[in-house]
Structures are given as C-alpha cells and as structure tokens.
Specification:
Blueprint: E1 2-7, E2 9-12, E3 15-22, E4 27-28, E5 33-34, E6 39-40, E7 56-59, E8 62-63, E9 80-83, H1 88-97, E10 101-103, E11 118-122, E12 127-132
Parallel strand pairs: 3-7, 4-8, 7-9, 9-10
Antiparallel strand pairs: 1-12, 2-10, 3-11, 5-6, 11-12
Length: 134
C-alpha cells in the first residue's frame, strides 16, 4: 500500500481514518444539501444523493452562504473535512459539528484522492495521509 502525505493547516482538531468521498468541484450548503439525510441535493452535482456520513468529505472549497454550516449539523455527519481553499463557510461547518478538518493543503487534494481511498486526517497537526492500493 502506498502512502501519500499532504501537509496543510489545521482548521479543527481531531484525528480520524475513514473512506474518502471526493467532489472535484465546490460544495454549497443551505438548500443544496440535506443534513437529515446526509447527502447533496443539488441535482446537477456529481455527489447528488451520495451519502457522506462517516466519510472524509474531500472538496475544493465551500461556496454560497452561511448555510454551508449545515454540513456540520444533523445526525449524518462526515467523519472529516479535507479541502484545498479555506473560508469562513467551511470553518463554521467544522466548528458546528466538531469535525476534524484540514485545509490550505500544499496541493489540491482532489487531484490525488479518489472516492474509496482511505485517508488519515490529522486535524491536530494539519496534515493528511492518503492510502492507495498499488
């Protein structure tokens, strides 16, 4: 198994290893996701109705209004957030749900991580390790 370490910045502390769910584009909150069901409701989005509960949610950045904080609420929380560009939206979701989060990574994680990869998120020290089958 190949390990790839990507350094970034701590957004919210905690450590977890879980399966990745990758969005190659941004994610939007408010009416574009359902925290009670734990999936994206934006019909044209590649993750439409794909459950994110207990997954490392990997995305480029959060967009839209403060409604993105809903990704950190409800019974179906992601295990962690990993995203390339930080903003107040993703920060509020991580804080709201107390979800380990690493951001401002040295490379866009969506270019390395694929859905199904195992990812160790170290929100305490601000790095991730991607485990790839060879």
């Amino acid at each position: 198994m190949k390990e790839i370490r990507i350094n970034g910045r701590k957004q919210f502390g905690g450590q977890v290893t879980a399966e990745a769910l990758v969005s190659k584009g941004p994610l939007e909150g408010f009416t574009n996701q359902n925290p009670m069901m734990g999936w994206v409701t934006e019909r044209e989005h590649p993750l439409y109705k794909v459950p994110y509960k207990d997954k490392v949610l990997v995305y480029t950045y959060a967009r839209g209004s403060g409604g993105f904080a809903a990704f950190g609420s409800g019974p179906n929380l992601p295990a962690a957030f990993v995203h390339h560009q930080s903003n107040a939206l993703s920060n509020s979701a991580a804080l709201n749900g107390r979800i380990p989060s690493v951001t401002d990574l040295e490379i866009d994680p969506t270019t390395v991580i694929e859905t199904g990869d195992k990812v160790f998120v170290n929100g305490d020290e601000g790095y991730i390790i991607v485990y790839k089958d060879e």
